[in-house]
Amino acid sequence: MSDSVNSAYVLVLYYSRHGATAQMAMEIARGVEQVTGIEARVRTVPSVSPNTEQSEPEIPADGALYCSLEDLQHCSGLILGSPTRFGNMAAPLKHFIDSTSTLWLNGHLINKPAAAFTSTGSLHGGQEATLLTMLIPLLHHGMVLAGLPYSEDQLMTTATGGTPYGASHVAGSSNDNPISTEEKQLCQALGKRVASLAQTLIAS
To answer: Is 32 among the domain residues?
Structure first.
């Protein structure tokens, strides 16, 4: 998962509260890097605070680095991930997306492929609503949206997460459910699909 300046990359951008979304991001990155010529760049966003003082260090103590607007501007594709918050993305990720108006004004993301992934505590915890609402700002950016087609057999066999709108995971009420085999396979399939589309669009 290189950060080479000149290489084509898919940005896997997420916020994770208890770690499940971060684990999904790594599986998605593995799928991205199954495509020759495309790298995965994994980034996160800091938490937000109700006060106006800086509450997070500029570099996180562990895990992925914080995303910059440059990371987003120069990506060849984007896969956006968040836990569910009442059927929507978490505030820290929304806060970052809300800061991207300069990229929107200059059309930097137009015609780049994009997808979404999420994790919930319960089986019917708003996964599909969250995925759909996460895709709305990407439509405003002119991105080309990609889901998971039913050629991925795991969509029919999963008893945990997995939707045609994007990859998902059921973390459980204590957030301790491991990512299932089907969930891992669908995460990797989503990463591979966006990377393949990015490669096709770069070549066109």
So the answer is: yes
Plot region of 63 (φ>0 → left; ψ -120 to 50 → alpha; else → beta): left
- Distance in angstroms (rounded) separating the CA atoms of residues 166 and 23: 15
DSSP state of 149: -
CB < 8 Å & 24+ apart, contacts of 137-141: 137/97, 137/100, 138/78, 138/80, 138/109, 138/114, 140/104, 141/100, 141/103, 141/104, 141/109, 141/110, 141/114
The total number of structural domains that make up the chain: 1
Task: Give the CATH number for residue 144.
Answer: 3.40.50.360
Q: Is residue 53 part of a domain?
A: no
- Residue 4, in any domain of the structure: no
Structure-token pair, residue 56: 């997070």
Residues of the chain with pLDDT under 70: 1-6, 51-57
Give per-residue pLDDT as tens, 32-55: 999 999 999 999 999 887 765 556
pLDDT tens digits, 172-204: 988 889 999 999 999 999 999 999 999 999 887
Identity of residue 102: T
Specify if 95 maps to a domain. yes
